[in-house]
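Incident log, support desk, overnight shift.

02:14 A customer reports that sequence design results differ from what the structure should imply. Their input is reproduced verbatim below. On-call engineer (initials T.W.) acknowledged and began investigating.
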């Protein structure tokens, strides 16, 4: 588990998968996005940290062709609302339990055996 701050979702996912010797698939359309964040991307308000994060980590990422550029960019945004990235053998049960307790949780991906690409982003 890690808090998604500073390095963006991809940066933190990268650290987890490299330390665990696995790969991951992220479902871009499942990621909770702060209201207005995509509008900022569309208007060209790209923080320097996003660009730095992307330059650092994108070499491990492969995108499905239908993942739009704005969603690709937001994955590296260092600005967050304190979300956590959790990897567990039973994500469905954890998501259900957290939501039942009033804590917003969404399953955004899955862990895969170590393969290339290390991070797959699909829609």
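02:41 Re-run completed on a clean worker. Output:
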């Amino acid at each position: 588990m890690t808090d998604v701050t500073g390095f963006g979702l991809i940066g933190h996912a990268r650290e987890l998968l490299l330390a665990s010797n696995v790969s991951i698939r992220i479902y871009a359309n499942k990621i909770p996005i702060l209201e207005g964040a995509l509008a900022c991307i569309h208007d060209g308000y790209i923080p320097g940290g996003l660009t730095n994060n992307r330059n650092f980590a994108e070499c491990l990422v492969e995108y499905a062709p239908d993942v739009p550029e704005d969603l690709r960019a937001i994955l590296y945004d260092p600005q967050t609302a304190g979300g956590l990235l959790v990897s567990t053998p039973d994500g469905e049960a954890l998501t259900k339990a957290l939501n039942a307790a009033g804590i917003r949780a969404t399953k955004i991906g899955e862990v895969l055996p170590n393969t290339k690409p290390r991070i797959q982003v699909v829609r």
